Amino acid sequence: MRRTILFAVAVVSFVIGAYQTVLQNNETALRDNYWLFMISFVCVLLFRYLKPADEEKSTPKQKQPPGSSTKPVPRNKRRG
Q: N or C: which end of the chain has fewer CB within 10 A?
């Protein structure tokens, strides 16, 4: 629920900031709307920081099939 709200606030604040910057169309437009872009940036950082515990543990390590050796073959023993 928190992640959804953070994502929504990030998107909305970025869209409003971009719209206001284009609408004002002067030298100080980006500076005047900087706070909207920073709200968006902070919300995206928090969104990424608050990953669910399921996503962190869902990357299983691949097991090697039985009988396969992991030892490197010496150069003089390789077939060429």
A: C
